[in-house]
Amino acid sequence: MNGHESIRAKLAIAATGARGQEEWLQVEQHTRECQDCRRELELWALYARELRHLPQPVFPQDLLARTQARVLLANENRMDLRRNSWMLFALAGYSWVLSISVWMVVRALTGGTLEIFGTNWVAAGPWILISCLLSWITAGAAAVTLGTRNPARRAL
Fold first, then answer.
1. Range of the domain at 37
2. Is residue 57 part of a domain?
3. Of 47, 85, 109, 147, which residue is 20 to 30 A from 60 by alpha carbon distance?
4. Which residues are 56's β-sheet partners?
5. Are residues 36 and 111 in the same domain?
6. What's the pTM value of the predicted model, to 2 decimals?
7. Is residue 135 one of the residues assigned to a domain?
């Protein structure tokens, strides 16, 4: 890009006064010698002047406060979700540890057999099946409880 083209690329911004002093001096010196660039600079300056006369949008006075409140509420909801996820994870782990512990105690107390309706309920298969079913029911109830704890805060 030659000198003329580089100055021409700076004209629009120079017309608004957004260029530094050194670049403005380069543009000014070039426009003294180049009639086309001088006209273009004047046109850009006219656009910039007229744009300043356009009506400026008026924002409600409480917009900043409302926006900050919404951001804080969104962050709080995100933290609640994270805490609830960790709580469910911890409860699931606790449930499995408790289930295995109770299974070991029941097996020790019954000698490894607790037959009801022809099924040994302390065998690994039936015990895990019942434990999973109870854990899922409990987790579902906990999820519903945590999800409906404060519905007013969830609405953004």
1. 3-52
2. no
3. 47
4. none
5. no
6. 0.42
7. yes
